[in-house]
Design goal:
252 residues; alpha/beta; four-stranded antiparallel sheet; 9 helices; binds adenosine-5'-triphosphate; binds magnesium ion
Length: 252
């Protein structure tokens, strides 16, 4: 018997202003799965990620998004995060004046409060911080700096994976984690994802490059085109795409 899906997107239609961007998208993700979504620029991949995370400015006009069997369309972004949805940003924000440790402690305590738990004890928090730091090869010098302020592109991305490791989400959506990463950073980000993946969580990796998928081997690859998923396959589909390009593949 198959488990219940973590995420179920049914016939989703969504618009920004008057413009329909998502045009009848279906996607089902089960626990333990890593999905990759590929697709040309402007096809709605980031929009889809933002809609799942609950960002303002998008109007869902049809369809539903279920997370662990419950519709999340009426939930705030904070509630969705507390339920266990994590979105790694294509362009991570900087938070001047807030150190990484304080930022992470606040995030973890909010999550614990939602689960009816007391704030994490400082000693326990530091232990966890060190463990996860080691897991994702996050340099120690970052700890006392403000969140993302003056971080290089690679450091921001690594930081995003670190935050994911700390929060231990049920569903993580990573948008273009390979953009601008050097090969070592790419590898350690992928290693982080590989260490964090388990039978209870799931990942959606949005990427343009087959290269990332050599390191994070997806169970399922989708091709998104003009606001819909038009093809689904295994990791070979990403290779075929690299060889043929979108136009040939989507029209074949
Ligand atoms: N705030 C906005 N206002 C108006 N149009 C928008 C807005 N955000 C996105 N769009 C449009 O929605 C479409 C989908 O954009 P989206 O960023 O989701 O594409 P994408 O698939 O992530 O592209 P890329 O591969 O370049 O990251 C584009 O045509 C874009 O111009
Ligand atoms: Mg995008």
């Amino acid at each position: 018997m198959k488990m219940n899906p973590i995420l179920e997107i049914k016939n989703l239609h969504a618009k920004i202003g008057d413009k329909e961007i998502i045009k009848g998208l279906n996607l089902t993700v089960y626990p333990g799965e890593v999905h990759a979504i590929m697709g040309p620029n402007g096809t709605g991949k980031s929009t889809l990620a933002y809609i799942i995370a609950g960002k303002d400015g998008y109007e869902v006009t049809q369809g539903d998004i279920l997370f662990n069997g419950k519709s999340i369309l009426d939930m705030s972004p904070e509630e969705r995060a507390l339920e266990g949805i994590f979105l790694g940003f294509q362009y991570p924000v900087e938070i001047p004046g807030v150190s990484m440790t304080n930022f992470m402690k606040a995030a973890i305590d909010a999550q614990r409060k939602y689960q009816g738990l007391d704030p994490v004890k400082p000693g326990e928090f530091l232990k966890m911080y060190r463990e996860k730091q080691a897991l994702v090869n996050m340099p120690d010098k970052i700890k006392n700096r403000s969140v993302n302020e003056g971080f290089s592109g690679g450091e921001k991305k690594r930081n995003e994976i670190f935050q994911m490791a700390m929060l231990n989400p049920k569903l993580a959506i990573l948008d273009e984690t390979d953009s601008g990463l050097d090969i070592d950073a790419l590898r350690s980000v992928a290693e982080g994802v590989n260490k964090l993946r388990n039978k209870d969580n799931a990942f959606i990796i949005i990427t343009h490059y087959q290269r990332l998928l050599d390191y994070i081997v997806p169970d399922i690859v989708h091709i998104m085109y003009d606001g819909k998923i038009v093809k689904t396959g295994d990791k070979e589909l990403a290779k075929e795409l690299e060889a043929k390009g979108y136009d040939t593949l989507v029209k074949s």
